[in-house]
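Chain particulars:
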Amino acid sequence: MSYSEKLADRIREALIEVPKVKEKVMFSGITFMVDDKMCISVGPGRIMCRIDPELQDQLLEEKPCRVMVMKEREYKGYILVNEEDVQRKKELDFWVGLCLDFNARAKSSKKKAALPVKRKAAPAKKGKAASAPRKVAAKKKAVPSKKQKAAPTPAKKKSVANRKK
């Protein structure tokens, strides 16, 4: 099930005056990033709001919303609100306002490091044949052969001598 395009348009309209807004496809819908930080997301039949975690418990008691749960883990500061609970402009503006208030103070997530790129071998120069890569032999540990057994230590000689007696 995809996200509500109508609800996404309403959020676009609410964020029209906000600078640095980008849209990304994620969380089974579309996410609105403000200053490269997740602000609000539209998913199937709901919005997900990134709010101040300090307000979460109060909002859960007073408003029709729930905590976001993913893989049996509750995410503090992420609230889900059903689409029918933001039908009026005033209700949607309340949630968008909370998201924008927190966004100004929120830390942006760490950028993931780019994966290393495998490079192709450079093409051989004209007139020269491409040489095969050289194999480097691994160093082996010196293991004495049966003929070259190490001489027993003096302590071992005594114990061998004691057994014969």
